[in-house]
Design a protein that fits this description.
single chain, Rossmann fold, 11 helices
Length: 294
């Protein structure tokens, strides 16, 4: 059973977040709104070594521990349906990773509708390539939540073609694996998700696809090759639209011989490791410890 805090968060999300993308019209209005700042919070700047540089015309922020760290590194891809900027919850997890001695690279990819996946993939690839010039791939994790989780998996599927090694591990929090949200179980699950709507989320996906076929693996990595990837660690709640496709990923991954561990949290909302509930704090602690120490 979900904790009292998780249930309270669900109520707040249902009242404040779910209506914003409840219809195609509302989603289009939301997608067209000006984007917010991607600047790191002041508290992060005070706590860690932080610098932002331009890579292929997009900002990439490095958050590094002040004591030199463990030698481990993460490329973290934030969520937001590919149309919303990085949020304080993302920075909070990034800060926890730096507290544990992990260097975090945060590629702030361009958002739809102004930008698409066509710009994001070469940008993230270059960030990863530059990181590997300083840190061995065996010490690097690629992580992401929601849309960023989908991008992380899609990116991992392109590494062989780019001539780059797989990272040590992939960590995916409620990854958006199918841009079309066409799994047959989703209509029945939608009322239980206090945050996401099918129609509005699909509309955001169309903006990110930029007119291209949304079922291709770089947009819907559930359709991509799962064999030969780094070991995957996936977190998902039972009260969210990402659940059916995560379970399908688990099934297809097993068939492909992938090393894949899925944690399903009863009653938990979308990207629950980022929320201030006991389930979220426990998952975040486990994620940080695994990345920092293995």
């Amino acid at each position: 059973m979900a904790s009292l805090q998780m249930r309270a968060i669900s109520v707040v999300l249902r009242l404040t977040r779910k209506p914003r993308m409840a219809t195609v019209e509302r989603a289009r209005k939301r997608i067209a709104e000006p984007k917010g700042s991607t600047a790191p919070p002041t508290a992060l700047l005070r706590r860690h070594h932080v610098r932002t540089r331009s890579v292929q015309g997009f900002p990439c922020t490095t958050v590094a521990p002040r004591d030199g760290g463990t030698g481990r590194a993460v490329v973290y891809l934030h969520g937001g349906s590919y149309v919303s900027e990085i949020a304080k919850q993302h920075w909070a997890l990034i800060s926890k990773l730096a507290d544990a001695g992990v260097r975090v690279e945060v590629p702030l990819y361009g958002l739809g509708p102004q930008h698409t996946y066509r710009e994001a993939y070469p940008f993230v690839t270059e960030v990863y390539r530059e990181l590997l010039a300083e840190v061995d791939a065996s010490a690097v994790t690629v992580a992401g939540d929601s849309a960023g989780g989908g991008l992380a998996l899609g990116f991992a599927q392109t590494l062989a073609e780019a001539g780059l090694p797989q990272p040590r591990r992939l960590v995916l929090l409620s990854p958006w694996l199918d841009l079309t949200l066409s799994h047959p179980d989703l209509p029945a699950l939608e009322p239980r998700d206090p945050w996401l709507n099918i129609d509005g989320t699909v509309e955001a996906g169309k903006a990110w696809a930029g007119g291209d076929d949304p079922i291709q693996p770089r947009l819907s990595p559930i359709n991509g090759e799962l064999g030969g990837l780094a070991p995957m660690e996936v977190y998902v709640g039972t009260a969210e639209l990402c659940l059916p496709d995560v379970l399908l990923l688990q099934e297809r991954g097993a068939a492909a011989g992938a090393a894949l561990e899925v944690t399903v949290c009863p009653g938990a909302v979308h990207v629950y490791p980022l929320v201030p509930a006991p389930e979220g704090r426990s998952a975040a602690k486990r994620i940080v410890e695994e990345i920092a120490r293995g």
